[in-house]
Design a protein that fits this description.
five-stranded parallel beta sheet, two-stranded antiparallel sheet, Rossmann fold, Arc Repressor Mutant, subunit A, globular, 9 strands, mainly alpha
C-alpha cells in the first residue's frame, strides 16, 4: 500500500510558548521588506533571536498567504541529499513519486501563494541556496524567509542583520522606572519572574540588572540563561560571577566583547554551574539530533558515574537550569536543547572520548525500538506508533546513518530500514526509504541475504513510484539473486509480490493474479499479517478489476475480519475502499457509498490518510456521476486531483482504473458543459481535505448569524470543527480538546487554526463569544 498526505491550508507554525519581547522596529521593518522582496535572509550570531523574530513576522503575516505559512527546521538535518525531501515533508507532502527533486517541488509550488520559512541554513548553505533559487524561479507566488549565520548569496536576496536587544549604554542615568523600555532589561525581568515570581526590578537591583544585560551584549539566549540563575542567586551575585569570568576572558580589556565569545563563555559558565552528573548527562543527550523522550535518555545516557535511577533527577536539574526544554505531546513529554547548547555538549562529549560509545548506544536503542514498533504495528496502537515514528524520525534517521557508516553494521541498517517499512509509507517518506536502501546496496559490506531483501523493497518502491525502468532492472537482479542465494526466511514470496505489482502497473492482470497467488501461498509470509494484508488487498483489487467479484468480496471480507480481530485500521481502510469498488461494479451503489464512507472515517483516524482519501473521492465521484449527481461528482474529482497532484501516484498502480475516471469525466462534460465542469472541479480543488471529507460524509453545515459584521466572514464549519469550537467556548486547551475527541494535539491545533481562518477571528475568545451568540451559552 502507498500513502500520501496533503498540506494543511494554514501552515504548520504553532503558538509561541513564551512572551515575545521587544523587536517592534525589526518586526515592522522585516514585514515591510517581505512585502517587496521574495527572499529575505536573517543573519546573526547564534542565540541572537533570529528564529523567534522570523516566526513572529511569519505568524503575523500568515493571512496574507492563501496557501499558508510553512516552517522548516534544518538544524537536525546533516545529509544534504535529504534537503528537498525534508522541505517537502514539512509542507505536509507525503510523496510516492520517485523522489522530490527540486524541479518537481518547484512545479508543485508554481501556483501557490505561500510563505516558506527555512531555519538554520548555515551548515547546508550551498544546497539551501540552490533549492531556494530554484523554488523562487519556479513559483512566482512564493516568498522565503531564511535564517542563517551568513547570507545565501543569491541574486535578489535581501539580507537582514539581527542585532542584539537594546541595552542602556555605559554612563546612562538609570532607575527602575526608566530602563524597562530597553529590550534586554525587559526580557531579563520577564524571564527572571518566570523562575522566581516575586522578582521585581527595583532601584536597589536595577544597576546590577542593566550591567548583566550589558555584559551579555543583549543576546537573548545569553540573557535567558542568566535570568534562569535568579532562581538561586541574587542579581549582584550573578553579576559578580559574570564579571570575573569575562575579566579572565578579555585579559582585563574594557572593550566590548565579541558576541560569539560572550555566548560561548556564558554557556561554559552554565556548564561550570552544573553538577558533574548534570555535565555528563548534558554531554550525552547532545547525541540526540533533535528531541527525545525519557526512556531514550535513560537507556542511552546511563553508564559510569551516571546511575540509571538518578537520570530523572539529573535531567530535571538540566530542565530547571533551562539547558533542556520540555514540550508536551499527547499526554507525554519530549525534551530538546537549543542547537547552540547541543553543539557545546557535543564538544564536551568529544573531550570525554565518549562519542563512539554513546552513538552506538543511540543506534542500538532505536534499532530495538524499530523492531518493537514493527512487531506491534498491526494492532489497535497504530496511531500511537505512527506518532512515535514522526516524533523520533530524526533519531531513527541518525540510527540508520550510523549503521551505514560502519561496514559491520550495514546489514543491521538494512534491517532497520525494513522494520520501519510501513512507517516510511504512512508518513510519506518513501523517497527517504529508497535513499537509504540505495545507499545500503552500494556498500561492499552488504551480505547476499540483506541484498536480496533490499532489492525487493527497492523494487516495491519503484513500482509505487511508477519507475518501471528501474523495476525491470531490479527484478532481474532479484530473480538472479533468488536463484543463487535463496533466503529461507523469504521463500521467494516477496519477489513474487514485487513482480505482481509490476505486472499490475503494466496492465497484465492475469499474470499479476497468478503471482499474487504464489506470494500468498508461501508458508513464510503467513507469519507477517501486514504483508498478508497487503497481498490480500492487491489480490482483491486485481480480481475486482478483472470482474471476479465473488472472489474479490470473499478475500476482502477475510481481510476485514483479520483487521477487526486485531483492532487494526490502516489496512482495513484500504480494503473497505476496495470492497466499495467491488460493490459498485456489482451494481450496488448504496453499499459502495457506505463502504467508501467508512474507509474515509478510518483514514481520518490516522491523520486523514491522504492516499486512501483521494481514492475514496475518486470512487464517490464515479458513483455520483453514474447517478446523475454531477455537481458532487465534479467536486470530488477536484478534491482528488489536489491530492494526486501532490503524490505523484494514481490508484494503487493499476492502469485499468484510469478508464473509470475517463468515463466519469466524459459523463460530466456531457451533463454540465465545459465551463460549468471546470468551475466545479476547481471548487473541489479549493476545498481542504477536511472540508471534502465532511461533504462526503454529510457532515457539512453552515452557521448563520444576524450580525452584520460577521455575515461576510462566516464559513461552513464541518461537524468536527463545530465540536472543536464548542470545546473552545468551554475554555478547553488544545491538549484537552485532543484528549476529549481522541485526536492528536497537532490535529486539534489545526482544527482551531481552520476555525479562526474561516470565521476571520484572531483569538479563541472571539470564537467563544461567537459560539455563545450563535447557539446560546455552552454547557460545561
Amino acid at each position: 500500500m502507498s500513502h500520501t498526505a496533503t498540506p494543511r491550508g494554514v501552515g504548520n507554525i504553532g503558538a509561541e510558548l513564551t512572551s515575545f519581547v521587544g523587536r517592534r522596529q525589526e518586526t515592522t521593518d522585516l514585514s515591510r521588506l517581505l512585502a517587496v522582496s521574495r527572499l529575505v535572509t536573517l543573519i546573526g550570531v547564534g542565540g541572537v533571536g533570529k528564529t523567534r523574530l522570523v516566526l513572529r513576522v511569519a505568524s503575523e503575516r500568515r493571512r496574507d498567504f492563501r496557501d499558508g505559512v510553512w516552517f522548516v527546521d534544518l538544524a537536525p538535518l546533516d545529509d544534504e541529499a535529504l534537503l528537498t525531501q525534508t522541505v517537502a515533508s514539512a509542507l505536509g507532502l507525503q510523496d510516492q513519486g520517485t523522489s522530490w527533486p527540486i524541479s518537481r517541488l518547484a512545479q508543485f509550488l508554481h501556483d501557490k501563494a505561500m510563505l516558506l520559512v527555512v531555519d538554520n541554513c548555515e551548515h547546508l548553505r550551498d544546497s539551501c541556496a540552490i533549492l531556494v533559487d530554484a523554488l523562487l524561479r519556479g513559483a512566482p507566488g512564493l516568498r522565503v524567509l531564511a535564517t542563517s549565520r551568513q547570507s545565501l548569496g543569491l541574486m535578489g536576496e535581501h539580507v537582514f542583520p539581527v542585532q542584539p536587544l537594546s541595552v542602556p549604554e555605559e554612563g546612562t542615568a538609570i532607575s527602575a522606572g526608566s530602563v524597562l523600555h530597553y529590550e534586554a532589561v525587559k526580557l531579563f525581568v520577564e524571564r527572571a519572574r518566570a523562575v522566581r515570581p516575586t522578582f521585581e526590578l527595583t532601584d536597589d537591583n536595577v544597576r546590577a540588572v542593566t550591567a548583566v544585560c550589558r555584559r551579555l551584549d543583549g543576546i537573548p539566549l545569553a540573557i535567558e540563561l542568566a535570568a534562569a540563575r535568579v532562581r538561586a542567586l541574587s542579581v549582584n551575585d550573578l553579576l559578580e560571577r559574570l564579571e570575573d569570568r569575562f575579566h579572565l576572558l578579555t585579559g582585563g580589556s574594557k572593550a566590548v566583547l565579541p558576541r560569539h565569545q560572550t555566548l560561548r563563555e556564558l554557556i561554559g559558565w552554565s556548564w561550570d554551574l552544573c553538577s558533574p552528573e548534570e555535565q555528563t548527562l548534558w554531554a550525552r543527550v547532545s547525541m540526540f539530533p533533535s528531541e527525545f523522550d525519557f526512556p531514550a535518555a535513560e537507556a542511552i545516557c546511563v553508564g559510569g558515574t551516571l546511575d540509571r535511577r538518578a537520570i530523572l533527577d539529573v535531567l530535571t536539574g538540566l530542565v530547571e537550569k533551562t539547558i533542556v526544554t520540555v514540550q508536551e505531546h499527547g499526554g507525554g513529554v519530549r525534551y530538546r536543547m537549543l542547537e547552540t547548547l547541543r553543539e557545546y555538549g557535543r564538544a564536551q562529549l568529544e573531550l570525554a572520548a565518549e562519542v563512539d560509545e554513546v552513538r552506538e548506544k543511540h543506534r542500538a536503542y532505536f534499532r530495538g525500538m524499530a523492531t518493537v514498533a514493527r512487531a506491534n504495528w498491526f494492532s489497535a496502537r497504530q496511531k500511537e506508533w505512527l506518532d512515535w515514528f514522526r516524533l523520533d524520525h530524526s533519531n531513527l534517521r541518525m540510527a540508520v546513518e550510523t549503521s551505514f557508516d560502519e561496514p559491520a553494521l550495514v546489514d543491521s541498517g538494512i534491517e532497520l530500514v525494513s522494520d520501519l517499512w510501513v512507517f516510511w509509507f504512512a508518513s510519506g517518506r518513501t523517497p527517504e526509504a529508497r535513499h537509504w536502501l540505495d545507499r545500503g546496496l552500494r556498500s561492499p559490506s552488504i551480505s547476499a541475504r540483506a541484498r536480496t531483501g533490499a532489492l525487493a523493497r527497492c523494487a516495491y518502491l519503484c513500482v509505487i513510484q511508477q519507475d518501471l525502468v528501474a523495476v525491470r532492472s531490479i527484478t532481474d537482479q532479484l530473480e538472479n539473486a533468488a536463484a543463487e542465494d535463496w533466503d529461507p526466511a523469504d521463500g521467494g514470496w516477496s519477489t513474487a509480490f514485487v513482480l505482481a505489482l509490476a505486472a499490475m502497473s503494466e496492465g497484465e492482470l492475469a499474470r499479476a493474479d497468478e503471482l499474487l497467488g504464489q506470494a500468498y501461498e508461501a508458508d513464510s509470509v503467513q507469519g507477517d499479517l501486514q504483508w498478508v494484508q497487503d497481498i490480500r488487498f492487491c489480490m482483491a483489487l486485481v480480481k475486482a478489476v478483472r470482474g471476479d467479484l465473488t472472489d474479490a468480496e470473499a478475500i476482502g471480507q477475510e481481510s476485514i475480519r483479520t483487521a477487526d480481530s486485531h483492532g487494526e485500521v490502516a489496512s482495513k481502510s484500504y480494503m473497505l475502499w476496495c470492497l466499495g469498488f467491488t460493490a459498485w461494479r456489482a451494481g450496488q451503489p448504496d453499499e459502495a457509498v457506505t463502504r467508501t464512507r467508512e474507509a474515509l472515517r478510518l483514514g481520518r483516524m490516522l491523520e486523514e490518510d491522504p492516499f486512501v482519501t483521494a481514492s475514496c473521492f475518486e470512487l464517490l465521484a464515479w458513483i455520483a456521476a453514474a447517478a446523475g449527481e454531477s455537481e458532487s461528482s465534479a467536486c470530488f474529482l477536484g478534491a482528488a486531483e489536489t491530492i494526486w497532484s501532490r503524490s505523484g501516484a494514481f490508484f494503487m498502480t493499476i492502469r485499468q482504473l484510469k478508464t473509470y475516471r475517463d468515463e466519469c469525466t466524459a459523463t460530466l462534460h456531457a451533463a454540465m458543459g465545459e465551463d460549468r465542469f471546470v468551475r466545479t472541479v476547481a471548487a473541489g480543488r479549493g476545498m481542504s481535505a477536511d472540508e471534502a471529507i465532511a461533504q462526503a460524509l454529510g457532515e457539512s453545515r453552515v452557521e448563520k448569524s444576524d450580525r452584520g459584521d460577521t455575515a461576510g466572514i462566516l464559513g461552513a464549519l464541518t461537524r468536527r470543527e463545530s465540536e472543536v469550537a464548542d470545546l473552545v467556548a468551554q475554555g478547553l486547551t488544545n491538549k484537552e480538546i485532543a484528549a476529549r475527541l481522541v485526536i492528536s494535539q497537532r490535529t486539534a491545533e489545526a482544527h482551531v487554526e481552520r476555525i479562526l481562518n474561516k470565521l476571520g477571528f484572531t483569538s479563541r475568545v472571539q470564537v467563544a463569544a461567537w459560539v455563545v451568540e450563535q447557539r446560546g451559552p455552552v454547557a460545561s
